[in-house]
Write a structure and sequence with these properties.
The protein is an alpha/beta fold. It folds into 2 domains: about 80 residues, no CATH class; about 180 residues, Rossmann fold. About 30% of the residues lie in helices and about 20% in strands. The strands form 4 sheets. Strands 9-8-7-10-11-12 form a 6-stranded mixed beta sheet, sandwiched between helices. A 4-stranded antiparallel beta sheet has the order 6-13-3-15, with no helix packed on it. Helix 5 links the parallel strand 10 and strand 11. The longest helix is centred in the N-terminal third of the chain and has 44 residues. It is globular.
């Protein structure tokens, strides 16, 4: 019995010694891990002088589209610090070239064009002329004075759709006192026609609100890089919260839409209404048309469709890296052997996106 009891005491002592050793080992390992975590946190705050050792990392989600990238690039007096770096994005221009007879000129090459920003020549980074799908917003006045015009306007818009790239994505906004998205992006002609027939004929005209809302929808809801707005109205704004200056400013963001406008003069559109449409269109590289009769609208929409499909795409990366949120004036010119004076219609300038946008 004594032998058995002694054996039991010896075994118990061995078990206690083993457990104590395991606890000591575990405590040491956790301390080292904690020290490693603390060292890692310190390394993120201030980069180490020696080359970093490879270590496992948890995959990170990509940044949101509206986030600006950051890169640890030291500047004067801030060595080793993380600094925000605003990447200068490529500015894309859609240019239409006309000869002395106001006919479209095609087949020009990159070397036939020059681009200046604030008077400084910019190197063209990419160039092409090809028919690409566009995101197109059709913005139609739905006020009471349009009652007797809508049938012909509907037909003219459908003719534009039929003459456009079949892969275009188009939405329809009807506006009176408010803008209404009656058909979101689609290439289905029947859906678009049904949206064009959604009429209410209320009295007021919130033109600027409709343009701003449609531009926002273009930017947020479409991934197609080429964007166009077609605005059709017979009057001037008398209801918007937005002003003409607000609307023009928002349209003049870098890579914003090209605006085409049709002002129907049959109801006696005032000069101020004409000037407003001209301002909205010309700054973006588009055109404002003022037909004397509804019978001319069909030809105008076909001309617009042809204009869109035959434009040159010219891109450049601004040479001035110190981007400030002030208006940048842009001028595009073209010269080619065998042609006389060529007129280039393109965006006249833009406001750069501010950091964080």
């Amino acid at each position: 019995m004594r032998s058995l009891a002694a054996s039991w005491w010896v075994n118990s002592a061995l078990v206690l010694i083993f457990c104590a050793a395991c606890a000591a080992f575990t405590s040491t390992a956790f301390s080292q891990s904690s020290a490693g975590d603390q060292n890692g946190s310190t390394a993120q705050a201030a980069p180490a002088q020696n080359s970093p050792q490879p270590q496992e990392t948890t995959p990170q989600a990509p940044p949101a589209a509206n986030q600006q990238p950051i890169s640890p690039e030291p500047g004067s007096g801030d060595q080793g610090m993380f600094v925000f770096k605003k990447l200068v994005e490529e500015v894309v221009l859609h240019a239409t070239v006309l000869d002395q007879n106001r006919s479209l000129v095609t087949g020009l090459s990159k070397g036939d064009f020059s681009v200046t920003e604030n008077g400084v020549v910019q190197p063209i980074t990419s160039f092409r002329q090809e028919d690409v799908p566009v995101a197109l917003g059709v913005v139609v006045d739905n006020s009471g004075s349009m009652r007797d015009k809508r049938d012909k306007v509907e037909q003219a818009v459908l003719n534009l759709i039929r003459a456009s790239n079949p892969q275009d994505q188009i939405f329809v906004v009807n506006f009176g006192e408010r803008p209404y998205l009656d058909q979101d992006f689609t290439s289905n002609e029947h859906l678009l026609q049904a949206a064009l027939r959604q009429v209410s004929f209320r009295g007021s005209t919130a033109l600027y609100d409709a343009v701003v809302a449609s531009d926002r929808h273009l930017q947020q809801a479409s991934n197609l890089p080429k964007k166009v707005l077609l605005v059709i109205t017979d009057g001037e704004d008398n209801m918007s919260v937005e002003t003409l200056q607000d609307a023009a400013h928002k349209l003049e963001q870098a890579n914003g839409p090209v605006v085409y406008a049709i002002g129907l003069l049959g109801s006696g559109m005032q000069i101020s209404g004409r000037d407003a449409l001209q301002d909205l269109a010309s700054g973006t590289g588009g055109v404002a048309y003022f037909p004397d009769s509804l019978d001319q609208v069909n030809n105008i929409t076909r001309t617009i469709a042809h204009d869109i499909r035959m434009q040159y795409r010219i891109a450049y990366r601004p040479t001035n890296q110190n981007v400030r949120p002030e208006f940048k004036s842009v001028k595009v010119e073209a010269r080619a052997p065998g042609y006389g004076t060529l007129t280039v219609r393109a965006r006249s300038g833009y406001y750069p996106s501010e950091p964080g946008q």
